[in-house]
Specification:
alpha/beta; about 40% helix; ten-stranded mixed sheet; Rossmann fold; about 290 residues; 10 strands
Length: about 290
């Protein structure tokens, strides 16, 4: 039997503490092991301004040495800060009763790290915004979409401070990724049975929405999960976000990025628009 492992990506951002709390709750709900991951991305950030055209060969060599020293010092500082973040998260998880908790710190980008860990992970937990977006009430982290696209593992996106989720909305439209999401939830993966499941289908034609709900109900009839279902007519984004608000939904589950990057560039990704417009956290299935 393969051990299920949740990988929670943490940094010094405002949402970092909530990511830890959500990851602990998800690990407890799914009886998974838990790994906290912190990445350090390299960048040259010299405090001195130099004009390349005015540098002699000796000055250029001195500059390279200086940048190298600065980078080493910055790297050591970030390693030390990252270790504190990871140790605090691990201690919090162990105080919550988890015993199988590990930490990993590595250099490179977050998408690269997740791609390397994909074979071990059953779920990845990310904050919607990282350190680069401190203090912003809206918006998404610069690496978020790249991180989600880098793997095919389910991703839990934390957008709010932690309160134990009570209601989940599964947005079902019959696409291959939404079918995967439907089966994932029906099979009892990750999400506690204490969470109420709302399956919602939205179409311009209400009969199409009803047919989708019938499909979803058939899938859940094979499981022990009790669900609420709604077939709705209207514009998809507006109707789903209204349903979230009216029914106090805590987590939205949906298939993610079913179109390629080129389509998203020209037409905008529905996944990204949902993330931007919704106040809930998200469980994305690819």
């Amino acid at each position: 039997m393969t051990t299920k492992m949740i990988v929670a990506c943490i940094d010094g951002s405002e949402l970092g503490h909530s990511v830890v709390e959500h990851a602990i709750w998800l690990a407890q709900s799914s009886q998974s092991t838990l790994m906290f991951l912190h990445t350090i991305e390299h960048s040259h950030q010299s405090e001195h301004v130099h004009r390349e055209g005015n540098l002699t060969p000796n000055m250029k060599e001195q500059l390279l040495d200086e940048l190298s020293d600065e980078e080493r010092l910055q790297s050591k500082k970030r390693l030390s800060e990252g270790k504190v973040i990871l140790d605090d998260a691990k201690q919090q998880a162990e105080q919550a009763g988890l015993t199988a908790v590990s930490t990993k710190q590595r250099h490179g980008t977050l998408p690269e790290a997740l791609a390397d860990l994909e074979a071990e992970a059953s779920l990845v937990v990310l904050g919607a915004k990282g350190e680069d977006h401190q203090g912003e009430k809206q918006g998404l982290g610069s690496q978020l979409e790249a991180a989600i696209r880098a793997i095919h593992t389910p991703v839990f996106i934390v957008k709010t401070n932690f309160t134990q989720p009570k209601k989940m909305m599964l947005a079902y439209n019959g696409s291959p990724t939404s079918v995967k999401a439907l089966k994932f939830i029906a099979e009892g993966n990750v999400i506690s049975e204490a969470v109420d499941i709302h399956v919602v289908a939205v179409k311009a034609d209400i009969e199409e929405a009803k047919n989708l709900i019938d499909e979803a109900s058939m899938t859940f009839s094979k499981s022990d999960r009790v669900i609420s279902t709604r077939a709705l007519q209207g514009e998809v984004l507006e109707t789903l976000t209204s349903y979230q608000q009216e029914n106090e939904i805590d987590v939205t589950t949906m298939g993610a990025f079913s179109h390629g990057k080129l389509h998203g560039f020209f037409f905008g990704s529905f996944t990204t628009r949902m993330l931007l417009e919704s106040a809930t956290s998200f469980l994305l299935i690819r």
